[in-house]
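Q: Got a minute? One more chain.
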Amino acid sequence: MISASVRDDYDAFELLHLFSKMKKADVKPNNNMFSGLIGACNGLIALRLREVYHAQTVHCGLSSNAFVGSSLVDGHAKQMRLEDAIRAFDEIIELDLVSWNIMIDGCVCNNSKEHAVRMFLQMLKGNMRFDGFTLTSIIKTCSKPGDLKHGMQLHGCTIKLGLAHETPIHNSLITMYSKCEKGMESPIKIFVSISEPNIISWTAMIYGFVQNEQSEEAHGFYKEMLRSGVRENDFSISSILPVYGNLANLDARAIKVLVWIGSIGEQFSDRHVFKVWQLGRCTPGLYENGKT
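A: Always. Here it is, folded:
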């Protein structure tokens, strides 16, 4: 019943009520149940609920299970509670590839390169074979020129293991090279080798051009993305907006920006409005003559 309710996206409080009824009926919970309950924790109450379920897993002797432990690690990491995620990870007795991947990715998402690299090295010492997901995450730790050598070594690993064709790895490599290497020659080579680039691939390229101060190229790539039928999302919109503050002939382009804003409707968030407002302050004539 609880597992089905989790799949049906029941409210967290309704799930807690079902769990309480199950406990009163003296029904013993299992790994799948706890994993689902922990994964369903969201919103402001998530931390408290996760603590409740964590305590119950300890009471039932299930906190060391890889399935349950990984859910705890993932939940804590998503709430930017890395130390709690690491403690939950350390409780797992038999670590599997999924557990390692969730922990490493959690470190990356919490902007902790040190912990991510340390976990990756521990994984290797334990003779655990990594996969494309592992490499996708660890490549993200290479984000400045001094990391280029390590990024290239990881790129070599993807080729050696036959994983270089995977789009998520391509996307991470595009971002890595655009941040660590001057210019966009390497990212362009990687991008054109992708058989079906997705929105993340396009956004990584646009962001890379912007970071390398190649506004015209970023603008051209964005137009090509739309022509190819790929629909923009929140991240691609955020990536392209700064371009309009760098291009020449801003008055003419500003009109295009405003027309484009009107075409994306509800996708345009308050954060985008603020960015355009900033652009307007730096761009003489942007909001003149009733162009708002």
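A: The mean pLDDT is 80.
Q: Perfect, thanks.
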